[in-house]
Prior knowledge:
alpha/beta; Transcription Regulator spoIIAA; 38% helix; globular
Amino acid sequence: MTEDFIHFDKNDELCIIYVSGEVDLSNSAEVRKTILSALKTTPEVVVNLAHVEYIDSSGIAAMVEGLQFANSHGKTFGLSKPSKQVRSILELARLDQVFRID
């Protein structure tokens, strides 16, 4: 279902999606698809970004789309443990004030 850079743990209430490596135009569609699929079947989705070394605007867009879907469908969406590189991009874009980040 997903590629090697994405795996997840899921139960009835929560799905944690673990992403690693680089999230860019070549694979952000897979990240987006995984997030949206999880949100359709689980009330809360958290994307763990601890092992993401690089994320570009298409990867950020996948996260924003997940947040928008969650908000419009009464779901909960958040990010967890963003790597230093990801956190700096989120802060630069002021998205650290938009996303719930654990």
